[in-house]
Design goal:
By secondary structure, the chain is α+β, with helices and mostly antiparallel strands. The protein has two domains: 223 residues, Probable tRNA modification gtpase trme, domain 1 (Gyrase A, domain 2, 2-Layer Sandwich); 74 residues, Elongation Factor Tu (Ef-tu), domain 3, CATH 2.40.30.110. 18% of the residues lie in helices and 31% in strands. It is built from eight helices and 15 strands. A six-stranded antiparallel beta barrel has the order 10-13-12-11-14-15. A five-stranded antiparallel sheet has the order 3-4-5-2-6, covered by helices on one side. Strands 1-7-9-8 form a four-stranded antiparallel sheet. A hairpin with a 2-residue loop joins strand 14 and strand 15. Helix 1 packs across helix 5. It starts with a helix and ends in a 19-residue tail after the last strand.
Length: 324
């Protein structure tokens, strides 16, 4: 059995790759592929250069996130990388939206797998996607008030390889998860629920272009960013590890005796110790000590702000005086 702390260090040093082979891989071909994907999702893709990475979100009409998609185009094919189990429903939606456009959608998950690393790619990689998370992309917006070292060094890549040529010696995905949590990086498989909007997870920084053309859910994105506030916010929790356990996905986060939110992901980090991401109510006091209710008992947690209480309302439009 591998040592998770050793695996994390090896990943960061570019000396190991993580096994992401349970994730799904789609392809879109045809001359209209980028303009079509641009019209459906939150990121500007019409100007995407070959092998340049992008991240985009497919929203429902109310602005809630349905799919988070990592995109890299090789000049002929757009490769769409999504979390495990999300390829089939995404492919089904895209098939319904083809109309008369020159695009072909295929689920290639049975043929191709994904491996992850830091600045490294296996020689047999068909394409490699480099995560844009460590800096705000053009057209994006960052709510987080600071950039900790774990974010700055998040030089994460995901490479697509034929399943028959998966490299040997891959480290478990859990090692990558600990580093992802420290980098405050949201994922569809863990942070999303049926009500999540991009602002709550600071996802405007990498996956939303605020000045692009119309797409489904754009009205909510614009209204919350310019005039409102997201109802919830993502926080990093530093957990009391004295009991030795970790909270599970969905465990309740309490402020006093009242529910404040839920755990989305937790891990033991080789430097930070036990940490977690949680989505809490926007108005939860950032300085307050929280409690995580786990199946083995309560666990104390200290917050580190990712999305501030005052996120949104960037237009700063003054309110009209109320007529009495």
């Amino acid at each position: 059995m591998s040592n998770p702390f050793t695996d994390q260090s090896a990943l960061l040093a570019g000396e190991a790759l993580a096994d992401l082979s349970d994730r799904d891989v789609l392809t879109v071909t045809g001359p209209d592929r980028l303009s079509w994907l641009d019209s459906l999702t939150s990121q500007r893709l019409t100007t995407l250069e070959p092998h340049a990475p992008a991240e985009t979100l497919l929203l429902d009409p109310s602005g809630r996130i349905e799919h988070a998609i990592r995109v890299v185009d090789d000049g002929e094919t757009a490769w769409l990388l999504v979390d495990a189990g999300r390829g089939e429903p995404l492919a089904a939606f895209l098939q319904r939206m083809r109309f008369l456009l020159r695009v072909e959608v295929a689920d290639r998950s049975a043929e191709f797998a994904t491996v992850g690393g830091f600045g490294t790619a296996p020689g047999d990689a068909v394409v490699t996607w480099r995560d844009p998370w460590s800096a705000v992309v053009a057209g994006g917006w960052q709510y987080a008030p600071d950039e900790p070292e774990a974010v700055a060094r998040w030089d994460w890549t995901e490479s697509v390889v034929p399943r028959s040529m998966l490299p040997d010696g891959l480290v478990p995905e859990d090692a990558a998860e600990a580093l992802r949590i420290a980098a405050r990086r949201p994922r569809a498989a863990t942070e999303l629920d049926a009500a999540t909007i991009p602002h709550e997870l600071d996802w405007l920084r990498s996956a939303v272009h605020l000045a692009k053309g119309c797409y489904r859910g754009q009205e909510t994105v614009a209204k919350v960013h310019n005039l409102g506030h997201p109802p919830r916010r993502l926080v990093l929790l530093h957990l009391d590890g004295s009991e030795g356990g970790l909270p599970a996905h969905g465990d309740e986060v309490l402020l006093g005796d009242k529910s404040a939110g839920r755990i989305t992901a937790a891990a033991r980090h080789y430097e930070l110790g036990p940490i977690a991401l949680a989505v809490v109510k926007r108005t939860t006091d950032p300085g307050a000590a929280l409690t995580v209710r786990t199946g083995d008992g309560d666990m104390a947690a200290a917050q580190e702000v990712i999305v501030p209480v005052d996120a949104g309302a960037t237009a700063d439009v003054p309110r009209l005086a109320r007529i009495r």
